[in-house]
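Anyone? Bumping this.
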Amino acid sequence: MLLRNIAHTRTGDKGNRSTLSVIAYNPKDFERLEKCVTPEIVLAHFEGIVMGPIDRYSLPQLGALNFVMHNALGGGVTRSLALDAHGKCLSAKLLDLVIE
Amino acid sequence: MTRLLNPNILRLGAGAGYAGDRIPPAVALAEKGQLDFLIFECLAERTIALAQLEKLKNPHSGFDPLLRARMKAVLPACMANGTRIITNMGAANPLQAGREVLEVAQALGIDQLKVAVVLGDDVLSLLQTDYLSEPLIDSKQTVADIQPLLVSANAYLGAEALLPALQTEAQVIICGRVADPALFLAPLMHHFQWQADDWPLLGKGVMVGHLLECAAQITGGYFADPGYKDVPNLARLGFPLAEVNAQGDVVITKLADAGGCVTVQTCTEQLLYEIENPAQYFQPDVVADFSQVQLIQAAPDRVQATGASGSPRTDTLKVTLGYRDGFVGEGQISYAGPNARARGQLALELVKARLADAGLGDFEARYDLIGVNAIFGNAPACQNMADTEPTEVRLRVAVRVQTQAQAIDIANEVEALYTNGPAGGGGASKSVREVIAATAMLMPRAVIQTQTVLLDNSIGGS
């Protein structure tokens, strides 16, 4: 199944880091998120885009994971030559992650 | 001037979430929100640096370009309803912004307006000789490395800097760089007499500010995903308002007739937006802790947020530094129909070869086909999309160089694909811009002195 069937996401930017929240639609899916959406898996999904490392914070009472992806924005919003300098589109890209 | 319909609840509205934000939702809040405060957050990371460049050209500019339009739109309702306004639209020139607001008020026939201007965030002069060996955040460089290129240096002031202005009779309070959540924390501290070392309460106030600071991003903006996350009446999306009590408990809601929605989902996305470690959200007034926050759907479009806390503030303030970082030349052109992708790819190779021949030395460049790989590049996880044959592609080349002349040459090289490139290129566009990059440092808070200046039509209107 795809991550998008059980979770929604939003990205933000901080310098050259991208922050990415992954939020379960249903709190009962949180454990599954914790198990299936690890920093290693997210880094592999964004291979070639995010250099890493990636930190993960858990907020079980919100059914949410918060990722901090380092070296993710081509030097940072104000310097990047990318069309999407903020990395806003990364949140949607994670939704097609295949999970167990 | 604060409304006292219910002194136990303070009603804060978000009037803008960024510099270019929509104006009608702010007017609706001013007219119907029964607000104590309407707060406009309009300063992105490098906005002040760009405003500073404007001010160098014209000493009467350097404030937010939409200031007059926003004030003209909301002042009548705010004055009629006793709603005070707080905004960072002063950007690089808060004093001139204050004068502009008085002019707008006078033109509207509002004579009694008082404006409080908060100064002190601009610390550029301190960097002429001091702090040169200080490290830049997230960089191996020091201030000295970029000092000759500096355009602006602005400390993120806290709510504390706004308190003297709130204690005046000013209906409009204008500042430059203030931490975004502090724009909302300040009226809470002022109204409920929260102490500057009551860390748990300040943490709760920061959460209120963080939830509101991006305006529509909590009422269903930046949220809709058809079939997955549908938002009602998105075209008439409203801005949020918060009802906060003296204990810092808050309900986020919106006007009943405004479009959008306030749900646990929209609030969770915004709570975590641009947050790194949720237990340590560094702010000038407090290190806020969102790690235990609970969100409850109390009623339709009403979400209660509890459980934020905080720990003591640090001894330093973050200072954003704007500096000149070369020029970017960019050009685009489209190819469509059969073999569009191959023609676009050929065009990219031509530009690459011609730029190599031009002898520009080392430069940083980006070669994209919009519709194929402009967003995710050629990352392996995106290959499935990159293999499909698009009906149309748009070539985009962006190059960073040292001089404006070089940047112009590069943009022209893309445009020249019209007559010197593959068949059927159309809709070329080009741009050249100076890059004002932003970085940051920490400065001892003790050296940053703030000041409040009160303006009214007797001294500031001309």
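Late reply, but here is one note on the structure posted above: Helices of chain A lie at 30-36, 39-45, 90-94.
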